[in-house]
Amino acid sequence: xxxxxxxxxxxxxxxxxxxxxxxxxxxxxxxxxxxxxxxxxxxxxxxxxxxxxxxxxxxxxxxxxxxxxxxxxxxxxxxxxxxxxxxxxxxxxxxxxxxxxxxxxxxxxxxxxxxxxxxxxxxxxxxxxxxxxxxxxxxxxxxxxxxxxxxxxxxxxxxxxxxxxxxxxxxxxxxxxxxxxxxxxxxxxxxxxxxxxxxxxxxxxxxxxxxxxxxxxxxxxxxxxxxxxxxxxxxxxxxxxxxxxxxxxxxxxxxxxxxxxxxxxxx
Length: 267
Known about the structure:
Blueprint: H1 4-15, E1 26-27, H2 31-34, E2 40-45, E3 49-57, E4 60-63, E5 82-86, E6 95-104, E7 109-110, E8 115-116, E9 120-124, E10 137-138, E11 147-154, E12 157-173, E13 176-179, E14 191-194, E15 201-212, E16 215-222, H3 224-236, E17 255-257, E18 262-265
Parallel strand pairs: 10-15
Antiparallel strand pairs: 1-12, 2-3, 2-5, 3-4, 4-9, 5-6, 6-9, 7-8, 11-12, 11-14, 12-13, 13-16, 14-15, 15-16, 15-18, 17-18
């Protein structure tokens, strides 16, 4: 059987020479620049790391599944280790919330041969009810829409979010969206928005960054059906959701695919 990651690498090598890059990252420094993006926040996981998350209901934050695992041990974070800083900018957040429950998609796999369903939901300890911090809609990418936008934090821009309002969907392989969006460590879990009709709508979540030759790419997990499955798990129970075992080792270093020169790493 051909490994999905090899299919992805071969696909990227074929399509990248024909694709133009997206717009540059823009820091959302002022209140005016940040307006409408307060629902994206920095997600602190203990004192060891942070990712990006987005509000999709007044008490639900969407992020990447691998964000909630300790890179070294594979242990799932406890809810009391998690803090969501909505609209974090310049040392202040528009809202501060802890976590009550969390669920990683039960189909999440990370074993070096495939990547799938890298998604998680965090139920906040208190809803965010603030007219300036509105949850985002989620759904499918609009038909034939190939341009998307990403709002994220990263290791070198941890205090102010950045937006790339135009990057491209290069294709879709094995449920993974291939993008040319500019992401880095800390961007994991960032929302990928379809902006084709003016209203931001989350269609994917940043899962990995990579290179094919000298071309940077990013990978996003499609989410419509998996999101509904995670919401059903939350509705069905009242405890903290854990997995019977951790996924195989979460990637911390680049993984190369020698045939094409492609390599990927969790951001």
